Amino acid sequence: MKTAQRILITALDIFNQQGENNVSSVEIAMELDISPGNLYYHFKGKEVIVAALFDLYQEQLRAILDAPSKQSDTSLNIEDFFYYLYLIIEKNHLFRFLYRNPTDLTDKYPSVAKGFIKLMAAQERCVTELLAKFVTQSTITASAAQCNQMVEIIGLVFSQAGNYYALKGNDINDDEYLYKSLSAILFALLPYINIEPGELHHLQEAIVNRGFSHDE
Amino acid sequence: MKTAQRILITALDIFNQQGENNVSSVEIAMELDISPGNLYYHFKGKEVIVAALFDLYQEQLRAILDAPSKQSDTSLNIEDFFYYLYLIIEKNHLFRFLYRNPTDLTDKYPSVAKGFIKLMAAQERCVTELLAKFVTQSTITASAAQCNQMVEIIGLVFSQAGNYYALKGNDINDDEYLYKSLSAILFALLPYINIEPGELHHLQEAIVNRGFSHDE
C-alpha cells in the first residue's frame, strides 16, 4: 500500500478512537512509524489530512446515494430500502469522527462545513425521493408532511445515534450500533408501511442478522 | 447578583456559543470585566466551573423529572406529557454546551461522564414510566418493545437534535428548535396514541405556539 493511503487509513482509525481534536499529525506519524517529515511530504499538516478524509467520505457516500437512481425503475421493495439505509449508516460509522464533534469540526474547517451542508442536503433529497416513490406505488401511505418527518428522523439517526449511545455510557460494538440504528428507523416508519406480516418478519430478521438478500 | 452566580451565567452563555473546549477561564473573566485572580477566588479553574454548571443542570433537570411522580395519580393526558417533554427539551437546550461535544467533554471530565450516565438513565426511566401509565389507561396502545423504541427516539431527540440541525447548516432560533424537536417526537408517537381529532389539533396548536395550557 502506498504511504499516502496508509497515512489516511491510520489517521481515520485514530481520529475515530480519540477524536480529531485530540490527535496531532506527529502522533499519526508515530503510529505509522514514519518520521513527521515523511508525513509532511505527503500531507502538509493535519488540516490537509482531515480535508482528504472528508473528500474520501464524500465520494464514497455519494456513490451509495446515487445508486438507486441508476437502477431500472421497477417497483422498489422495503427490504432494498433498508439495505440502502444500512449502507449509509455503515459508511457514516466508518467515518464517525466527522460526527463526533460536529460543531467544533465545522468551525475549524470551513470547507468541511460547506461540504457537509451539501452532503446532508443530498442525503435528504435521496431519502425523500425514495419515500415519494414508495408513496406512488402505495408501499407507503403518508402525506408529504409525514414523509418530511421520516426524513428528519432518519437524518437524526444517521448523524447522531453514535453520540447518543456514547453519552448513555453504552459501550456497544459496531454490529449493535447498526442494529439499533436500523431498528429505530424501522420503528418510526413502520406505521406507514404497507407490509405483509411475513415480509415484516423477514425484514426484521434481516436487520437482526445484518443479512440482507443483497449480501449474497 | 453575587459574583459566583454571575460567573456561572456568563460561562454558560459563552460555552453555549463557542463550545467549552474553545473558551478559557481568562476569557470568562474578561467577558465579566473581573480579574482572572478574582475569578480564581470563586472557582479554582475551568474544570470547577464546568462541574458546577453540570451540578446546576442536573439539579434543575431532576426537579423536572421528579414532578410527574409527585402529582396525584389521576389520569394523565397527552398534552401534559408533551408539556413535560417540552420542559426537558428547554432545559437541555439551556445547557446545550454539554451536548455539543459529548465524547470529548466526558473524556475530559470523568465526573461529568458518570453524572451523565446516571442522568440519562433517570430520564429514560421517567419517560418509560409515563408511557407505561398511558398504556395502562389505554391512552397509548403499544407493546413494551414499542415503548422502548419510543424512549430511544425521545432520548435521541433530547440529546442530539441541536447537533443535527447545526450540521445541516440550519441557523434556527430557540423557538424553532423546540418546535422541531417536539414535532419529531409527536410524529414518532402519534400512531400509538388514541386521541380524538380535536384533541390532536389542540396539541399540534400548542406545539406550534409553544402555548401549553399550563403556561397560564
TrEMBL record, chains A, B:
The keyword Chaperone does not apply. InterPro entries: Homeodomain-like_sf (IPR009057), HTH-type_Tx_Regulator (IPR050624), HTH_TetR (IPR001647), TetR (IPR025722). The keyword Signal does not apply. Residues 24-43 bind DNA. It comes from Paraglaciecola arctica BSs20135. One of its GO terms (molecular function) is DNA binding. This is HTH tetR-type domain-containing protein. Pfam families: TetR (PF13972), TetR_N (PF00440).
